[in-house]
What does this fold into?
Amino acid sequence: MPNNINNNISKNLVPEPALRRMPCYLAFLKLAKGEGLKYVSSTQIARNMDIDPTQVTKDLSYTKIIGKTRVGYEVDSLIDVLETFLRFNTMDCGYLFGAGSLGTALLLDHGLAQFGFSIEAAFDVNPDKVGLNIGGTKIYHVDDFERVKKPNVRIGIITVPMEQAQATADLMVEGGIDAIWNFTAVRIKASNNVVVQNTPLYAHLAVIFNRLHSK
Amino acid sequence: MPNNINNNISKNLVPEPALRRMPCYLAFLKLAKGEGLKYVSSTQIARNMDIDPTQVTKDLSYTKIIGKTRVGYEVDSLIDVLETFLRFNTMDCGYLFGAGSLGTALLLDHGLAQFGFSIEAAFDVNPDKVGLNIGGTKIYHVDDFERVKKPNVRIGIITVPMEQAQATADLMVEGGIDAIWNFTAVRIKASNNVVVQNTPLYAHLAVIFNRLHSK
It folds into this structure.
């Protein structure tokens, strides 16, 4: 095992590509379980993902699970270990900023709860939105953020118009949010201790359109 | 200019990372326009994105726009060129498979229309969903796909439960869909001439959770 892996484990800094692959491993394992499989090997997982088996072994080593020679990983155990490692079976709360079209859509999508995420409250500036309850989540005015904010809520979703994206991020960070899930196309600036993840729907569309029309 | 760029231009194969960055450039340009800027340089764009200016110049060369020495790119022209290049100002249609929680959310999000994408029809197997109209889109039974399908609709969104993801992809491809936008955690298998883009919300959550709790 190369040294940097040991360093990463001790610092808890699992590389981002590994973290991104793990939910796919989990999906594969759940499908395998549904088909009655008791054990899967890293080779089987790797073949499904079209990657190298050593990559799978390396990724799974962060969870500290150890496969058995010849038989591989026990499916039930590996599902448990991955769900715990990825924190999909404990609930983290977040706030949503911008209850427009995409924001409303996310408020109505309760699928994220299966991955351990729930939206505690939402904020908007539109008087027609403030006071509403969308999918069980109350919409407050942005000015009420400081008053409403609870210390256990550390994640903030940005679905505001792009003109407001950076100012919203600043407001969130000032209010104690230290992880930003950004759905806008704007590059969010924040200090290094703030986690920023971008989910650029339009970037994926750009690739689809280009490849489709390049045929 | 290295040779491979010329080759990519002639084959229309713009690298995926470049395509993914372009919508961010576009967002930056629109914000710059809103602030009254007439020209921006590749250095300004690069500074905003935290990347190298030569990367910006290289990416923008795919659109064939040429910046002016010292002043840079004209903001209005570059917005037009990028929107046309990314096909955000012409409408592409798609079908959605799986009108559950996330599927319904996407049907209600009309924001994608701003990026040149609209959902023409949706398909589900749930008798409670079939026949409904969600956000202006009719829900059909999956068995009606062959009958309903129009040849100009080439994009299919997958928001079905993961157990049905691969079978749904197979059905779509058999019906003539040649670009799949997959929102499940399942690795979709399709022949090389089918475009597959994954938007793994849970993968982004996994990174947020890990980084947040590693602090």
